[in-house]
Amino acid sequence: MxxxxxxxxxxGRPVDPAAPLLAxxxxxxxxxxxxxxxxxxxxxxxxxxxxxxxxxxxxxxxGKSVGAQAVMGIIDSPPGFVTGGSVRFRGVELxxxxxxxxxRVRGNRMAMIFQDALTAxxxxxxxxxxIAEMFRIHRGLPRKAAGEKAIELMERxxxxxxxxxxxxxxxxxxxxxxxxxxxxxxxxxxxxxxIADEPTTALDVTVQAQIMSLLAELQQQTxxxxxxxxxxxxxxxxxxxxxxxxxxxxxxxxxPSLPVYHRPAHPYTLGLMDSLPRRDVxxxxxRPIKGSPPDLLAIPPGCAFRPRCxxxxxxxxxxxPPLAAVTSDRISACHFWEEVSRExxxx
Amino acid sequence: xSDRDRERPSPGSPAHAGPTFEELEAEPIIRRExxxxxxxxxxxxxxxxxxxxxxxxxxxxxxxxxxGLFTRADPRAxxxxxxxxxxxxxxxxxxxxQGCDYYARTIWGARVSITIGVLVxxxxxxxxxxxxxxxxxxxxxxxxVIARLTDIWFAIPTILGGIVILRSIFSTRGLLQVSLVLIxxxxxxxxxxxxxxxxxxxxxxxxxxxxxxxxRPFRIIRRHILPxxxxxxxxxxxxxxxxxxxxxxxxxxxxxxxxxPAISWGLMISVAQNRILxxxxxxxxxxxLLSVTxxxxxxxxDALRDALxxxxx
Lengths: 347, 313
Description:
With 347 residues, chain A is of the alpha/beta class. Helices cover 33% and strands 23% of the residues of chain A.
């Protein structure tokens, strides 16, 4: 395999210096299963620049993870198919690349970490070995040199006594340490993009903060773009530059994270905010969003959120709301976004 | 192990200016648990079932490799004058019709039985791992073709199929021919096992993670799927050694397996059946050794299953 790859080409195609690090446009993914076609992602668009963080927010089944897997190109096919849209990495269309070249992009240029590092690490090999394997297969380093690099990386993600712990197996680590191992593995080849799929969901609150600040620190050192998939609004407000809120496979609100956080323009975002305990506002009780997400096999016509929406009216059942420009850099897929955004006008 | 002990800073060393939160977290190294296999080994060492079957298998293996350790007598040096002697101090297991020392023949019989058992199991496991992991990992039409082919093959009964093939195709039937037939008929069960284990392991997050890091499919199968899917295969393979040994004996007994002058337990039992009332020792000794061998492998398989399959713990 190639040793050091030129960073100015992707799979032999020259990069466009003016293009953003990653541009996802109208991405569509469906799963064809016996029961029918599940439209997991119906039009997802965002751009990610160097050193930027985009948060993709949504509850389970909103398509946020599938969207990320499609960007990585690791959707099981069949049953999963990317049916439309484009994913351009520094201007190079990834969806058109043959699998062998796509594989070279994975790990080298973009990497991914998963929710539960216990299941995302191979249980039968020591962690040091697993990190070292990245250097051996992608960089062709000999065993010993790769092992040294692995220890270096473990130190970089602040695993104490890394040299000792390199020989331990994944189940011998605590959740936070395991996630650090996963991060070390993902960063081994200096990817330009890191996709973190709910990196802190399985962790204790105190450890969550440690992992998030580690990610922020590493991002600052390397200038990598971070795609953060989460259902935790609090995390989003703290670290993300941009946020994309997804519901039933569709993006419902998108924009810079602080304005979206402070003044949501979609009832779903507002519902997420209200179901979150806040330190600054003493509400008498939390207001959860009623009902549950729709069956992706049979998304209702019109607005998918209507059955759960306190603003829902007759038009919502008929017409799928267009993406309305809330401000120049924000959009909301709600017929009544103006009314919704007035909700927090005083806040 | 020694590296770890050496490098762990002792609590009193100057490097330790009060343990931080993270150092406390890292403490459990002292109580190492090790991998699945290290864990299984610790468990096995204490199990009588494993120890007994292990000792028996080692003895049988020695018997197969160096029969000279157990007997000085030549199993083919026979004198008709000594035909059908009962067990005695000179001939522990008596002699057969030809006047050969029956103890020596029984010992030498281990070689054929164990060679066939191990060879057939190794080859069919290899075939099963290759095809099974391809079918399980790629799925789709590749899997459909391999799985249907296996189903058709699976429908052929081993002994019956063995009789037909051995009688119609081969003019001489030695160890290789019998092994070949048992391999040809033996791989489907193993393949099904490998395929389902691979399919289950494929769904694990670490396989996705490996893919997300750009690891090639072949390496994913070799490094991430097979090491995690192999436990049930090891267990089944161990049991299969026993089953194949008895299948060889059955084929030889039925007269379609090995041919004289080969020395095999199945063949000995086959010859002994005519004299079961006049010379029962001819049946007793090879039969007992055959049973013990099959029993040891099956017992070993059970012990391994208990240790390697966490669901049964």
